[in-house]
Amino acid sequence: MTDRVLALLAPALEPQGSVMVDATLGRAGHASALLSQHPGLNLIGVDADDAAIEESREVLAPYAGRVTLVQARYDAIGEILAEFGHPSVHGVLFDLGVSSPQLDDPRRGFAYSTDAPLDMRMDRAGELTAADVVNTYSAARLAQVLREYGEERFARRIADAVVRERSKAPLTSTMRLSEIIRDSIPAPARRSGGNPAKRTFQALRIEVNGELEALQRALPVALDALAVGGRIVVLAYHSLEDRAVKRALAGAAADTTPPGLPVQLAESRPRFRLLTRGAERPTEAELTANPRAASARLRAAERVRAAA
Ligand SMILES: C[S@@+](CC[C@H](N)C(=O)[O-])C[C@H]1O[C@@H](n2cnc3c(N)ncnc32)[C@H](O)[C@@H]1O
């Protein structure tokens, strides 16, 4: 959906000296396309993962004079903009979740198909690892994480099996966890829906990185930081993420005139207009080229009014 992201942000980034935040820089795929398309754009690239920042530094070397890279969680966006002297910006991009290089690096422990330590931290200085979650949470709490963040039907069975197995020896490897998950799921259910570990691994990753809390903190700050005419684009890959995005954008695009008031108050007019009707999904052609995009949902909005 890169072309759509570029098209949605383009009108806001054309002016010379425009500034945008790529809050999830990854390996700078979107960032390099944006910098190449807009010669007057300055980009602040944020990622929690130090490896993403280091690799992006190389990828973005041709644009070094227009790029600021910050290793941080995106809920620090307000502090980052203050530090670099940008009270407002013209674009913000969130491309949420895990990157392909993170999934493909077996040492990071995000993938269920290769053996690795149970880590899953995007910020490698973070305190909580996936091993901490599976070895210390109660069965009830673990089941809740798997149900809520993984939409896992067999959450309680998996959580009970994890608690049983860890009483013999601490769980430290992705493969061992995958085996426990597979053995907890009834055989008929195992035959459909892809790898049975997929939903549990997604849930653990969201828990380890506090992904939903960070997103809920970051969205209002990002919206407030946009100048009039500025645009925000968010790519979400999970229904809970998408719900948080939908709520934040719909709230910003709502008229807040108290019900029953006969006139619309200037300060109650919507601050944003929605640029997408509902959530946009990838096309068949995009899915063929990149099957990992299957769950992507894109939403965007434009600032139409300054703060009262
Ligand atoms: C899907 S990838 C982004 C890919 C990127 N758009 C590109 O074109 O290469 C998501 C990135 O967001 C980062 N990330 C996830 N949660 C984060 C958070 N709370 N704060 C900062 N970065 C985060 C991950 O480390 C990962 O590199």
Helical coverage, percent range: 40-55%
Q: List ligands, each type once.
A: S-adenosylmethionine
Number of strands: 7
Which residues form runs of ≥5 with pLDDT under 50? none
Kindly report the spatial arrangement of strands forming the biggest sheet.
3-2-1-4-5-7-6
Shape: globular
Q: For the CA atoms, what is the radius of gyration?
A: 21 Å
Mean pLDDT over all positions: 94
Would you list the SSEs in sequence order as H and E?
HEHEHEHEHHHHHHHHEHEHE
Q: Work out the strand percent.
A: 5-15%
Q: Measure the end-to-end span.
A: 35 Å
The major beta sheet can be summarized as: 7 strands, mixed
Count of alpha/pi helices: 14
Helix/strand class: alpha/beta
Please give a structural write-up.
This protein is an alpha/beta fold. Helices cover 44% and strands 14% of the residues. The protein starts with a helix and ends in a 5-residue tail after the last strand. It binds S-adenosylmethionine. S-adenosylmethionine binds at residues 24, 26-30, 46-49, 52, 73-74, 95, 97, 99, 122, 209, 211, 214.
Which short descriptors sum up this protein?
globular, alpha/beta, seven-stranded mixed beta sheet, binds S-adenosylmethionine, 308 residues
Topology diagram in text:
Layout: H1 2-13, E1 19-22, H2 29-37, E2 42-47, H3 50-59, E3 67-71, H4 77-83, E4 89-95, H5 100-104, H6 130-136, H7 139-150, H8 155-166, H9 174-184, H10 187-190, H11 198-208, H12 211-225, E5 226-236, H13 239-252, E6 272-274, H14 284-289, E7 297-303
Parallel strand pairs: 1-2, 1-4, 2-3, 4-5
Antiparallel strand pairs: 5-7, 6-7
The structure holds S-adenosylmethionine (SAM).
